[in-house]
Amino acid sequence: MAAVPPPSPPQVSVHPAVQPLSYLLGTWRGQGEGSFPTISPFKYSEELQFSHSPNKPVIAYSSKTWKLNSGEPMHSESGYWRPKNDGTIEVVVAQSNGLVEVQKGTYDAEQRSVKLKSALVGNASKVKEINRVFEMVNGELAYVVEMATNLTSLQTHLKALLKKI
Fold it and tell me: Entry's SUPFAM superfamilies (predicted)?
């Protein structure tokens, strides 16, 4: 009697809304630096993860950072990216310090870039605005985070360069 092959696993597909950003899916690691007028400059290591549940129009996002020299944990955040077919995107992020962001922006699949501006910064007594730009640069993921507070205008706070692992 011939053995019956096991059934094929179901086909996993990327939702059409997520497809233009599918290059982000996976784990990224690298280093960054931070500065702001009210703090001393610092360097950090980071791991970003972008994951996608099959057939859902959303990307799950998480970030963890740690001090470059000591490995001591620093900041973490997680949320969801909801790309739309028209090139717009909505992002929600909850930070470990209690701050919550709702961001809206655009993505360019050809340029492999995402530009986000805060629509809401919640549970923050000082932070008024946060903008983020993600771009592919020579096969690596570069980002810049700008921030404005009660006392400072919008300016660069964080920037990093990450490689897919």
Answer: Lipocalins
CATH fold group of domain 16-164: Lipocalin (2.40.128)
Question: Is 28 buried (19+), middle (13-18) or exposed (0-12) by CB count in 10 A?
Answer: buried
* Stretch (H or E) spanning 136: strand 127-137
Q: How many CB atoms lie within 10 A of CB 115?
A: 16
> Domain extents for the chain?
16-164
- Extract the tokens encoding 100: 């919550």
pLDDT digits (tens, 9 = 90+) for 97-113: 999 999 999 999 999 99
* CB distance 128 to 150 below 8 Å: yes
Q: How confident is the model at residue 125 (pLDDT cuts 50, 70, 90)?
A: confident
Contact 80, 58 (CB under 8 A): yes
